Amino acid sequence: MIKFFPSRRIIKETGIDFGLLSKICTDIFESGFNRKINIYCKVWKSKEKETSTMENTKGKCYFTMHLDTEGNKRYVFGSILHELRHAFQEYIFNFTTVSRFTSYNAYYKSLEERDARKQEKITSEIIKIYDNFKKCEEKFKSFNLKELGYNKGVEQNKTKQWDS
Predict the structure, then answer these.
(1) Which of 10, 83, 106, 161 is 20 to 30 A off residue 73, Cα-Cα?
(2) 3-state SS of the chain: helix, strand, coil percent to 5?
(3) Residue 148 located in a structural domain
(4) Domain presence at residue 160
(5) What SS3 state is found at 89?
């Protein structure tokens, strides 16, 4: 299970349903890695502009993500997936990341960053799944599917068929 624990500020600024995002990520990545995943991730607002980070806080499966929210939906979802890949690097592959680089070029070309950027390529698909799930929730509410019953027009048509 991948579980996000966002701060109130992150929820307010992004408007993302992190419970739903947790379910989507869990289903996709557990299926992809063909194993159970237990990652618990606090999501806080990044203090550095245009920078998101992920750090292991305690134990093997506890992480804190500092998320930059100054962008569009695709940027934020892409950042979450990128940082989540860093958690996978430590949790699944036992690959500890180097946090200090001599230059931006060294950082950009590092193995862990190239690997994390690969995971960003599924951002569009994750957003589509997320948006479609939200649309389905709205339709479920608007069609009043929580209760048993028919629309008045449909109910009248059925009784006419049975009366004949």
Answers:
(1) 106
(2) 55, 15, 30
(3) no
(4) no
(5) helix
The answer to whether 4 touches 29, Cβ cutoff 8 Å, is no
Residues 54-110 have pLDDT tens digits of 999 888 899 999 999 999 999 999 999 999 999 999 999 988 776 778 888 988 898
Average pLDDT, the chain: 90
Tell me the angle at which helices 123-142 and 73-91 cross, rounded to the nearest 10 degrees.
110
Q: Is residue 109 a part of any domain in this protein? A: yes
79, 117 contact by CB (below 8 A): no
CA distances from residue 32 to 2, 22, 25, 36 in whole angstroms, order as listed:
13, 15, 10, 10
Tokens for 109, please give them: 């070309």
CB 50 within 8 A of CB 79: no
The residue segments making up the domain with residue 84 are 2-139
CB 52 within 8 A of CB 113: no
Q: How many CB atoms lie within 10 A of CB 83?
A: 23
Say whether pLDDT at 155 is over 60: no
User: 159 to each of 40, 149, 152, 153, 155, how far by Cα in Å?
Assistant: 54, 14, 11, 10, 6
| Phi, psi angle pair for 46, to nearest 5° | -75, 140
Model pTM score: 0.85
Contact in structure between 16 and 43 (CB atoms under 8 Å): no
Residue 140 tokens read as 């479920």
